[in-house]
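Closing statement on the 2-keto-D-gluconic acid sub-project.
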Amino acid sequence: MAVRKPKVVVTRKLPEPVEARMSELFDAALNADDAPMGRDALIAALADADVLVPTITDRIDAATLAGAGPQLRLIANFGAGVDNIDVAAANARGVTVTNTPGVLTEDTADMTMALIMAVARRLVEGANVVHAGGFAGWTPTWMLGRRLRGAKLGIIGMGRIGQALARRARAFGLEIHYHNRKPVGPRIEEELSATYWDSLDQMLARMDFISVNCPHTPGTYHLLSARRLKLVQRHAVIVNTARGEVIDEASMANLLEAGEIGGAGLDVYEHEPAINPKLLKLSNVVLLPHMSSATVESRIDMGEKVIINIRTFLDGHRPPDRVIPSML
Ligand code: 8YV
């Protein structure tokens, strides 16, 4: 008798090798035209699927989950951050949630470093001048940026990505400071020559560069609040490759516009894909379209992790990347 393959609904188009393998292993419903699923389509998918593979563009809240059928057992998120999913509500319905940590660490840290450099050295401003035909020749005092060597970098969230950023930043001569729920331990602190700040306020007031590398959770929403953003030095640069919701974007835009914060390099936004219109007008910001983990290698590795999580779970074992709400 033929064994029924599990129905796996994938909400967005994934790299070809990932989709090919999923189609071999599962009864996979793929999204060939890559249109984001609306709420109704998501509810229909949850009513039908054994496993859902969503991404950041799918909001799976308690109300959406209420329409899930009894066959739904796993949500295998294609992404490390799970702030798009109400994990507690899923677990309460007996649905396990997994994610894809680790495989996008290095690419995200690369892009964070690139944003630090791009803002400090006015990379996009300079390139735009050349493209617009405005390069009239070298002058000693034009397009001056700020030196990285010797500057202080404050990393908010010293997990995998924060540590990978610290390694890169050390090579550029930046002094490493960090704020985290708890210190990372003496061995890592020593390797990174990193200084722990229990007080985020104290750290913010002393840094030249500030990088957000913590997940978005109820506890980190607007961690960089209007009050805290006012503590930042006038010349300091804020970089965010984590989640927009961690910063009060409207307050940050106002302070950047007023010249009370030196610059910003942003890959993520509070109301993505919408961006505060004030930010679009500023020359001291570099804005990217949520692309820090966008490499061919990372996307294939993310797909591989999703498949491993599904297979392990369906074989009756604990999937390697199960998300535990208390860890968020
Ligand atoms: C992913 C990300 O591309 O994995 C994450 O948490 O922020 C991104 O880099 C996206 O989330 C995929 O769902």
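The chain has two domains: 7-103+295-327, 105-287. With this model delivered, the sub-project is considered complete and its resources will be redirected to Aim 3.
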